[in-house]
Amino acid sequence: MTIDKQALREVAEKATKGEWWSDVVETDGEYGEGEDRVSGYHSYAVYVGHESLLDMINSTAACIHTEWDHDYHMAWDETAKRNAEFIAAANPATVLALLDENIQLQREKDAIEAVVLALRDDMRQVREQLAAAERRKADNQEPAGYHVIKECGKVGCSVATLEEAEKTRDFWNKKWTIRPYFYTAQPASERERIRREHAEWSDATFGDVGPVGPLKHLSKEALEAAAEPGDLSEWADMQFLLWDAQRRAGISDEQITHAMVEKLAINKTRQWPEPKDGEPRLHIKEQPAQVVPDDLVKAFISAIEKEQDRLFGEDYLMDSKDCVDVIREEAQRLNSCRASMLQGGAK
């Protein structure tokens, strides 16, 4: 509903000034017809000071014929009472105060919108200035290195200087191109945007599946990245798959960070072999104890050799030497199995 506030203000300003109030009116008037006719029912009036503005406010529809007071008068008309109280409360002073408050709120709203528009313009200018500064910085910044790009678009290798890049290109294929790269980190907000966009695409493409698939795919991409460490597309695929597996496993960044802190502390306590480029990083593990001690194996074999005539008769298919060899091989197998199990559990 649209309210004509100006018209409402004009009629409120013309109305009687002062404090409005309502009260019951005692009357000897008659109400109803025939046998239902009664006299002395109650009504209401609205006053300003001692002057009556509205008399005989009543609602015949709300009168209750079956209710009477102790003087056998009809019960008060509650609807008339409520209407009189509302009219007295919604007096000209109240209406004008509400209209003034509405004007003040509109002024405050207009002022806030003006500030928001000004801030929006300021933020746009700041973003443009930051972008220009980043461009100037990139123009003046020395490259961190150079990628030698194959004809297929993949990175063939990465070298530190332009001279090395040119020599590499000329040696392999002069049609390859050279592209500098810089150590300028992406803004966190942009990285998070890409992360959200990839999550939406992954859900729409692969559906509601668990983390095992992305992790298996991650191992494949890791081998491809190991074969071509300079290919940034392989690094991007590994990051996407790691994000996807983590999200589908329900693991938060905070949980990963906590686990990294604990794992780093463990790694610092371990012993590591001399580093070799291109070799997996495996820490030095303690040698596991043998399942069957050597002394026990030797004693068992010696006992068999002493009793071979009694233990191995002519009808026995295996002689004592073969039996000793079998025992020795079985002891070695058990020790190897235990060592493998311990190494697997220590990863």
Description:
With 347 residues, this protein is mainly α. Among the domains are: 19-90, no CATH class; 145-181, no CATH class; 209-269, no CATH class; 294-345. It has eleven helices and eight strands. The chain has helices at residues 5-14, 78-89, 92-140, 162-172, 188-206, 212-227, 232-248, 253-269, 294-306, 308-311, 320-345; strands spanning 20-26, 30-31, 38-39, 42-48, 51-57, 145-149, 155-159, 177-181. The strands form three sheets. A three-stranded antiparallel β-sheet has the order 1-4-5, covered by helices on one side. Helix 5 crosses helix 7 (232-248) and helix 6 runs antiparallel to helix 7. The longest helix has 49 residues, at 92-140. The protein is elongated. The two termini are 72 Å apart. Keywords: Coiled coil. Residues 109-136 form a coiled coil. Residues 194-288 form the dATP/dGTP diphosphohydrolase MazZ domain. This is DUF550 domain-containing protein. Pfam families: dATP-dGTP_PPHyd, Ead_Ea22.
